[in-house]
Design a protein that fits this description.
Elements lengths: L17 H30 L1 H22 L2 H9 L4 H29 L10 H13 L1 H12 L3 H24 L5 H26 L11 H32 L2 H38 L4 H34 L5 H10 L2 H16 L6 H23 L1 H22 L5 H12 L1
Amino acid sequence: MPAPNPEITPATPRPQGAVANFLSLLTGNAAVQCVNLAYLTVAARVLGKEAIGVYSFLIAIHMLLSVVVSFGREMIVTRETTGATADRRHALLEEAWLHHLLMGTLAALAFTLAALWVPKLTGRVAYIALAASTLVLVSPAIAIRGFFRGVKRMAICALADVVHIVSRAAVGLVLIAAGFGVASIFWAFAVSSACFSVFLLVAYYCHAHRLLRPAPRGEHRVLLKDGGQVAGAHLTSGVFNRFDWIFLGSLKTAAVVGVYSLAYRFFEVFLRVPGLMALSAFPYLCEQEKKGDDSSAQMRLALKLAVLPGCLVIALAFWWAEPMVILVLGPDYREVALLFVVLTLSLPFHGGCGLFYHLTIARNRQRYLILTSGSSAAVNVLLCVALIPPLGGLGAALAMLVPSVLQYFLLGLAANERRLLLATLLHALRAT
């Protein structure tokens, strides 16, 4: 009779293989993107461009706040969970939940109170309060999702994301049909966040046979120090990814923001694939780095796989972007197609960025991430300020390209992978 494997205990879910993890994330994300795109398409058709613009503007602010609240804990929990004991993992989760709960409550109060004094937010306090409540509602889910990634059970993470978006779409569509208007989207956002957390709490109990509670467990040093470095990078990346929405919303009409946000949603469908590859590879990279194994061959293959799809999408987008947009949204949204094509030009660089980003954290070099993300965010802000006033949504799309190229090279240097930078891009272009 074979000896029992000490790694497989009631508190340690049996890990999936790398391919199975990627396919789980890819399948789950495909479902999430399809449901989200269908939900927003229906909402746009029923509620109009302005409603989608209001939602996109407020959610862009919310996303920046959520980066501050999460404080990089999910990535650190994933890294520290890899190879850790069951007790250490449980302690990490309870401490991370406590930190998220405290910071989420403060941020939710600040976000809601700010609406009383900021002219652009006045009159939308109820929407903001609903959006702010999710900062508290998701507090246990973020750390638990990091745990399941660390033990290589990506299928649970994917299923949680599906539960999140399906509950959001279901509640939103019911409320839209009932005539609640724009408020429907924000109520759905809050209810789905609660469903997301409940699902992951139940999943953790089923796999670990232990109840979680927010409590201090002596893990604050790694969560605050390393998490703070990751959070700084996440925040500057959030500025990079959402400043265009916020600045566009402050200068232009809600309809202009709505058109740009729809183009970005189409772009985001393709942006997710290389990001999922990097995410599924992250626990394995952490494992290799802790063991001191040479991962250069795997990195070359992974980077090619991350960059090549973006080059293919660019080639295809010039041909089918406009027919696709007209088919899905209708002829009134024809302008979405041009913005989508411009956004796709940055796809190959985003693919490489995701892999270099995770590799940098796996190698405990996250202190360099603030510099790389901050530089890209600064360039993005300058370009947005220069291009959005005269060009609107097209200026926001153009402002995305140069910082993406810069971030690709800076993250490659931060991950200490100089030789792969140009070689991989040239290989992908030749293959395309």
